[in-house]
Amino acid sequence: ATGALSASQRELEGRAAAETLGAGSIGLGIIPEDFKISREYIGIFDSIIHAEKPNLIFRIGDMDSHHEHNIVYECVRSAARKNSCSLISLSQALPGGIGRHQYDFFSDISRFEKVKREAILKYESQIEKYGMEWVDAIIARDKHWGFNIGVNSAEAAFIDKWIV
Predict the structure, then answer these.
(1) Is the peptide bond before 95 cis (omega within 30 degrees of 0)?
(2) Looking at residue 60, what DSSP letter applies?
(3) Parallel, antiparallel, or unpaired for β 86-90 and 56-60?
(4) Which is the most buried residue in 30, 45, 75, 112, by most CB within 10 A?
(5) What are the φ and ψ backbone dihedral angles of 29, each rounded to 5 degrees?
(6) What is the rounded (10 degree) CA torsion for 10, 12, 13, 15?
(7) Would you state the pLDDT for residue 50?
C-alpha cells in the first residue's frame, strides 16, 4: 500500500504543480512497484501521444539515476518512434546522480522563475524527503544554465529528435 499511497500523493502534487503553471495534467495511476518497460506501458504512452498530438515532447534524460525515471524515458522513446513531433530529454532530476553535461538545447525560462518555484513547492513529499535544499538546488541549476547563455534563468536538455 506504500507504493499506492506514494503514487497517489505524487499525482496530486503533480496536478497542483501543473495548475500553478497553467498546464494540464495526465495522471496514469501506476503503482511504482508495478511500473516496468513493457508493451502495456509503452501502449499507454502511445495512446496519450496519439490523443494529444503534441508538436514537442519533453522527457527526463537517460542519465537520470532514478529507476522509474529511466522507465519513463524508455517508454516515451518507444512511443515517440512513430510520430512527427520533436523529442527533447531534460537534464536529470535532482537528486539524479552525475550524468553527462553536454546539452544542446537551452530554454530561457527567466519569465517563469517565480511560477516554476511555486510549482516545485507543490511537491511537498520531495521537500519533506530532501529539504528546501532540493528546491534551492533546482533554482541554482537554472541560474547556472542562465548565466551560461546570458539570461537570468534557463533549463538545459538534449535534442533527441528535432522536426521543423
Answers:
(1) yes
(2) E
(3) parallel
(4) 75
(5) 65, 30
(6) 120
(7) 93
